[in-house]
């Protein structure tokens, strides 16, 4: 076991050493060490673990363990970020065990068949058991994490391993088909993540980065997961095997964190509504990030509550955390469209139960001449919409972006506006939509957006959702539309909060394209919305409140410890660009980023670029092209892994090509290409 003492590395600065003069709070902190080791699974595969371990202040002192399990390579890609949280909790008396999923990072074994595999979740159970039995452990374990490690924390908790006493999950999911990045709302979504993870999974095992037959067999030569996901275009056992939505309610206590600009935010409500164990929940205004630095703010220090949560469940400290309001939600009070806000106007609302006391619903009906009214149209009528495959770029890559003016998308949508409001309306929850529709082809896709129209005409996106109509009767038994025959579609719009201010109008926008978020359906033509009692929008109203609750004041973010063994050298965050030519019908969406960092004198660089394109006249022929390159310089040994992915669809197939190219010190070592022609199934 390799051991790196943080106290030595920091020159007794950030975490303190004996003899230091410290502030009272810091004086209570523990010194800690970083230790790299392995834990052997039942099949003999050894999983790599980095321990952030407090130094006992008294003989025989033991500590609870907090485990996070990811495939995101703890020794290189995530090393600097992991340190912030490992150091924070270790200094406060917890062992943090950061584990690489088997077949990734420093762990042995072959890359699993996909995310959240049986092997991965079974490994998590075994890891918890072993960690609880360590000599320095008090026998109690928690799991935590953001995104992937939130997903597997929920999945592992469902299995109820005896030593697992509580979890913290930020930006998780209970439903892998409807609420992940592969099929958003049941509709195909080609995300840059799919390319990224297939590239990073093909990197050699750290810390030695050996290029040998074991590496080729277990990593480089493995078929990319992209093919697996594209072959699973409909809901079923593949997606439901580990999705906790379809299992017994959660019986392990859970602290849940969501973001109003995160695509996974609905999981907070889903778990809270069904869990049999205590749950506390917080939903802030940010994107896919922890609350202390998520954008936009306001931000707060969630780790203070996390410590109280862990203290209660893992140390048995009676601190009253369950006697406080269980829900904390940021109420956005409305703002103009913008893509670069650092904070949004609003305030925190703390409440003891969901839904809030005094909640109600407001049902609005689309009328002819683009109006929203509180009663159905007295006469049924039909609005028609020509399908433009490249429309929708203003909403961004998923239902989780800061967005500019939605007017460009609304120009290719059916829009229905309320009269200017005479008083404020606050909403909090998941709006409901029902559409009575007909179409001239067996398959289209619908998208609905809830928007705020200001007196000056600027349009802000509040939330949205996509609808795959083949799943209108059953997600497990998709059925084509019957051309010309009316049918009813229903969906929940993703969780949101918003205040529609006096003078503003509530807008429902209905379209058939949300490019590039949703892969375009293949047939040009026209769809129809039948207006009447079966087409409506329902808003979850809550009593209008003001920021007067001092009990709902959240602590400001604390500085995080900086990893002493590395630093970021250069970073260019993703730059998004969308171009639409109304004359030709061409639409293109691109993004690119790069980052360079150093860890223990080894230099790492990753750069990527992705492009989605479609033409309105030939929507079947949409395309994706992506490139990602990782260049690692390890003790003078340069490893260069480049990947290229192409997806081109037609009316019947997705034509997929993925190439991995490995170079060492400038010389080609291996190149491998996978191709497949995957039939389209209602996507």
Automatic annotation (TrEMBL):
Keyword set for this entry?
A: Hydrolase, Signal
Q: Where is the Xaa-Pro dipeptidyl-peptidase C-terminal domain?
A: 307-547
Question: Any keyword Amino-acid biosynthesis?
Answer: no
Q: Write one Gene Ontology MF term.
A: dipeptidyl-peptidase activity
Show the SUPFAM superfamilies listed in the entry: alpha/beta-Hydrolases (SSF53474), Galactose-binding domain-like (SSF49785)
One Pfam family from the record: Peptidase_S15
Per the UniProt record, the source organism is Paenacidovorax caeni
What is the name attached to this protein's record? Xaa-Pro dipeptidyl-peptidase C-terminal domain-containing protein
Query: InterPro entries in the record, alphabetically?
Result: AB_hydrolase_fold, CocE/Ser_esterase, Galactose-bd-like_sf, Xaa-Pro-like_dom, Xaa-Pro_dipept_C, Xaa-Pro_dipeptidyl-ppase/CocE
